[in-house]
Amino acid sequence: MDERRACRMTPQQNNAVERVMDILRGAGQEHLLVFLQGVSGVGKSTILGQIEELVDNQDIIVVKDIRSITWQEKYADSSSHLVIPVTPFELGRLQQMISEHYTKWNRVETVWLRAMSITETLQFARCYSLERTSELRADLELSLGIPLLAKQMIDFNPTKDQAIIMAAEHIRPYMSIVSSTAVVQAEAMQYLGRELPSEVVDYLASTAAYRPLINNHLYHLIPHALEQIEEARQKGFMHVLPFFLAPESKEMYNEMLGGRDGYPMVHIYIPEMSEKDCEDFQYAFEERARYPNRPTVCNGSYRKLGILVHDADGRTHINESECGQIREDFARFREDFRCFQTPLRRTKGGQRLASAFIDTHQHREIRTGPTFNGWAVESWCQQKGIGYIVENYLLCKKYAYLPGDQHIVVFGELRQI
Q1: What is the pLDDT at residue 329?
Q2: C-alpha to C-alpha distance for 144 and 203, rounded to whole angstroms
Q3: How high is the pLDDT of residue 415?
Q4: Which candidate, 48, 42, 88, places its Cα nearest to that of 65?
Q5: pLDDT at site 74
Q6: Are 250 and 218 in contact (CB under 8 A)?
Q7: In the chain, is it the N or the C terminus that has fewer CB atoms within a 10 Å radius of its CB?
Q8: pLDDT the model gives residue 90
Q9: How far apart are CA 18 and CA 24, in angstroms?
Q10: Which of 393, 414, 69 is nearest to 263 (CA)?
Q11: What does the pLDDT read at residue 3?
Q12: Which of 412, 379, 372, 375 is nearest to 396 (CA)?
């Protein structure tokens, strides 16, 4: 095997390619269905690409996206062998559908693609980027041996705590409700072929009450956010990571997402930004950007989202929005800040500074828009080390972020609307 392919493919992936090819070569006259099974990010697409290069047989079809199985009738009418990628929780549904509609296949094989060992992970990382690997803040063991997670850790260089969250939220959809360490590790061995680091198990246990797809835990969306950040990076723009630095923020946003009280409206005032930070803010929140913008990264949208930017030259920029009072609200926040009515104080006197105001709201029964848009803004500010002031009507609180302390300070209550 040449060095280029050795770096491109992990040992587990190479073994899976050989296993699939052996099955295909021995198919004979049978109608063969091969499931390539593994968790998200473990490298199924990489393997399928390699199999396509090796196969020059019209009787073998490599299905890149299982969603195409449900609508492309050519598969049902075809006499070809199929190779299909699946995750563990997709397999049962797909097997049932195929047994009902694709009855001609009389031989089904499953090839598992599991994670890399720590030695293989380190070799993979050196092939991917030796220079950046040497500068990592978190141990690559936290990548769980999943190539996608290893690449994200190298590209984004999260802290150890952030890497733990990345790993736990990536693997959480495949795990049952956490009841014991033994159960978690047994499932990890089944899906990954290795145990989870103790820090990841502890995080899963501490957040066991939160389940995916219920919309009650903000960080379940971290894998989605990282995918969007990677897409933006490929298109030339680098977002800051979507993690809060203030320990209070995550629980506040979980309360916003899972609660029932309050009115879905959030006002955020950023009183001081350097010219460079203002430029970064405008690029990150550009509505018609060619890359995923910050609200998209955080699962938000521009519906009923107003953004006013007052740049260092004194010019005001306002996006098209349904926020008719945005100028008045901006002026009110600016006056409160200038008159020392908030815990946040001026820190950059004498510089040419920009400021911004964000109004995100929705109809009373829809909490997600202001929550996700607020997450986009507050995490951006915290990662940038920028202070801000918030009126959060979902929580009925006024608070400020103090970047020097990396804490949220609540300084007022808001009436229910």
Answers
A1: 94
A2: 14
A3: 87
A4: 48
A5: 58
A6: yes
A7: N
A8: 80
A9: 10
A10: 393
A11: 43
A12: 412
Q: What is the pLDDT of residue 55?
A: 84
Interatomic CA distance for residues 303 and 305, integer angstroms? 5
Q: What is the pLDDT of residue 65?
A: 72
Please say whether the dihedral angle defined by the alpha carbons of residues 229, 231, 175 and 191, taken in this order, is positive or negative. Answer: negative
Question: Which residues are within 8 A (CB) of 113 and not within 5 positions of it... i.e. 6 or more apart?
Answer: 12, 13, 16, 36, 37, 38, 42, 43, 44, 47
The whole-number pLDDT of residue 413 equals: 94
Instruction: List the chain residues with pLDDT less than 70.
Output: 1-8, 58, 66-79, 101-103, 177-179, 210-215, 320-323, 348-350
In angstroms, the Cα distances linking 91 to 13, 88, 170 are 19, 6, 18
Other beta carbons less than 10 A from residue 217's beta carbon: 20
φ/ψ of residue 388, rounded to 5: -160, 165
How much is the pLDDT for 58? 67
pLDDT for position 71 = 44
Contacts of residue 375, Cβ cutoff 8 Å, sequence gap at least 6: 218, 242, 253, 298, 300
Nearest to 172 by CA among 140, 141, 209: 209
What does each C-alpha distance from 363 to 200, 283, 339, 367, 390 come to in angstroms? 37, 28, 33, 8, 19
- The 3-state secondary structure of the chain reads CCHHHHHHCCHHHHHHHHHHHHHHHCCCCCCEEEEEECCCCCCHHHHHHHHHHHCCCCCEEECCCHHHHHCCHHHHHCCCEEEEEECHHHHHHHHHHHHHHCCCCCEEEEEECCCCCHHHHHHHHHHHHHHHHCCCCCCHHHHCCCHHHHHHHHHHCCCHHHHHHHHHHHHHHHCCCCCCHHHHHHHHHHHHCCCCCHHHHHHHHHCCCCCCCCCCCHHHHHHHHHHHHHHHHHCCCCCCCCCCCCHHHHHHHHHHHHCCCCCCEEEEEEEEECHHHHHHHHHHCCCCCCCCCHHHHCCCCCCCEEEEEECCCCCEEECCCCCCCHHHHHHHHHHHHHCCCCCCCCCCCCCCCEEEEEEEECCCCCCHHHHHHHHHHHHHHHHHCCCEEEEECCCCEEEEEECCCCEEEEEEECCCC
Q: Which amino acid is at 318?
A: I
- The number of residues in the chain equals 417
- Separation CA 30–CA 52 (nearest Å): 20
Residue 414 and residue 264: Cα distance in Å, rounded? 13
Structure tokens at 408: 């949220």
Q: Give me the pLDDT at residue 322, please.
A: 66
How high is the pLDDT of residue 365?
77
